[in-house]
Amino acid sequence: MYQGVWAVLTGLFRVPSQPPSLPGSQVLAMRPCDGWLFYRKVGFWIGLLATVLPITAVGLVILITRPVLVVAVLVPVFAVVLVMSLASYVSIHLGYDTTWYVLSERALRIRRGVWTIHETTITFDNVQNVKITQGPLQRLFGFSDLVIETAGGGGGGPHQQLEQSSHVGLLQGVEAPKVLREQIMERVRASRSAGLGDEHDTELHPASAPTSWTPAHLEALREIAAHMARLRARSGRTEPDRNLQGS
């Protein structure tokens, strides 16, 4: 059923099923881990039970006192709850399928959203800090979140505020956060060193470039050496004369 609903919604709302593209030869595309999806589904079922159980308790009380009201009031309420729960459950899967994190040599692109798709691109030149956050429930389900702070960004805060900030990138549901943070920091260091022009200096003055001496070079060196010898000899002859004149 989910695949059928997914096909209808992607066709209706033109939701992209492929990860966003970034220029570069070494591009890494990933989604949140399965633990993050399971964590959200458990939260959905807990929320659903917290909604249905009180309604059911009220329905039992009304059923004993006024059975007619059960059909008149509770049946429409249960129908609305069922429709909203189904939509919420499908949106969890759609949110998981449409969330992508793409890394290239120069930038990170984050895509998320179902009804409204948001794409955020962060260049590694502007990255100031990469933090790992993990609460007790996240630790239980085996994932963490990565918070990427850029120039002009603020400190940590609620995830909703982080997602809305243009200076902070939020990567949710990361199964190996330390490995991913190191990959990002390697790209940050490489991007900053490249920004200083090191790659151009390497091209202009390659350290491993072979040196080839032609006969013309050797002849020029001999002439320079002979000229220096004449200058030293001339300097040796004139220095005693100056000493004698001084005495």
Automatic annotation (TrEMBL):
Give the matching InterPro entries. YdbS-like_PH
Query: Which parts pass through the membrane?
Result: 44-64, 71-96
Which controlled-vocabulary keywords does the entry list? Membrane, Transmembrane, Transmembrane helix
The record, for Pfam families, names: bPH_2 (PF03703)
Query: Which superkingdom does the taxonomy of this entry point to?
Result: Bacteria
Q: Where is this region: Disordered?
A: 190-212
Q: Which parts of the chain are coiled coil?
A: none
What residues does the YdbS-like PH domain cover?
Answer: 96-155
Name under which the protein is recorded: YdbS-like PH domain-containing protein
Which species is this record about? Cystobacter ferrugineus
